[in-house]
Here is the input.
Amino acid sequence: MAEIITLSTPLTKPSTTTVAIDRIVIDVTAKSILIQWTGNDGLAGSAAYPTPAPVGSSQPSGATLLTTLNKLNLSGVNPSLVNRILTRLQSDGYIGAGATSGSPD
Here is the structure.
């Protein structure tokens, strides 16, 4: 085993207070969705929604999300696609609770 040092005071990560979606990858053939984001502290994260959903997971499959996505009404006062994705990431435990702000680009 290589030499290591056990720190008496653990290093702490920068505080992530905001998260923005960078990339949404939709693979229609594989029925999977990949979401990538970056926090204000520069830390990146991602969430994968394959089909079938991971065993023991409560998250929906990519196929289920694709069906929902295909039927969405994104016009008028309805939440934007990014807003809905952020809410899904929160409900699936990928990012913490918080309020969405800003306007769709």
Summary: Helices lie at 62-70, 81-91. The chain has a mean pLDDT of 90. Strands lie at 19-27, 32-39, 44-49. Residues 81-91 form the longest helix (11 residues).
